[in-house]
Amino acid sequence: MTYANPSDPIRRSVTIAVPLDAAARIAAALEETWPAPDAVGHFETSPTSAEVFAHYTETPDIGLIETMVQAAADGAEIGSLQVETIADEDWVTLSQGKRGKVEAGRFTVHGSHEAVPATRGAIEIDASIAFGTAHHASTKGCLLALDDILKRYRPERVLDIGTGSGVLAIAAAKFCHAETIATDNDAAALNVAEENAALNRTPEIRFRACHGFEDPALVGFEADLVFGNLLKSILLDLVAGFARHTAPGGLAVLSGITADQAASVEASYRNFGFVLKRRILLDGWAILVLQRRPSMPVFD
């Protein structure tokens, strides 16, 4: 992500409400518009929707943007394009995604613009097209769950499915001498995650481009701790994979679901040998900490 020269006098913000599953490709399309935007990103506004934004120091071609957004939406229903002029004093805050640091137990997730003590639990993550700055309650809740788990033991194998920015894998790697694998089906997100891992001095994380667990590196891989900060539909689709790749007695931390969706997800995972150990409710979102029963066989 690049940023504008603070002396530029005119700056504009373009935002659009979109379905969550279309947000990444619409953000990618905005990166290709001309004049080039100074910052592009997206963030969840609900379990099924997101807001995509782009910031410009040159006047953007709104007609071109609308055409590219419609093409990237690929038939998905999207909101109308919103364009506004940004006051000088708000520009850097918006273009760098400055929304303040987030504290979750021993972890402090912060942007590069924030002065934070270089402690073991400090994680530098700037806003980007990859999900996971811990401002979203589901990510923060997963970090709180990890903080609680680390009070009792240190996993030796960690798996993060749908890693996004890599924040959960990075957080685990900072406190566990663990073999850690993180997957995502979004190549752009994986590039961001790898950069974040290097920045946070956790280069040992192995990143794999795949859907769910569909990678040769995961054949026979059973983790003591598996993260899945996804959507309800994806968590239900991948339940057999979570059971197969969570070691007997191991833990799965699941989120990306609302409080009223938690019971159905829990029930589905119970059928595959998981028992609920803890439920965290945060701003209407649920985080489930499940343990796989040692003697339960796995069937697709």
TrEMBL record:
Q: Give the record's GO biological process terms.
A: methylation
Give the record's keywords alphabetically.
Answer: Methyltransferase, Ribonucleoprotein, Ribosomal protein, Transferase
Q: Which domain of life is it from?
A: Bacteria
* Record GO terms (molecular function): protein methyltransferase activity
EC code: 2.1.1.-
Q: Which InterPro entries has this protein been placed in?
A: Ribosomal_L11_MeTrfase_PrmA, SAM-dependent_MTases_sf
Name the GO cellular-component terms. Answer: ribosome
Q: What is the name of this protein?
A: Ribosomal protein L11 methyltransferase
Species assigned in the record? Methyloligella halotolerans
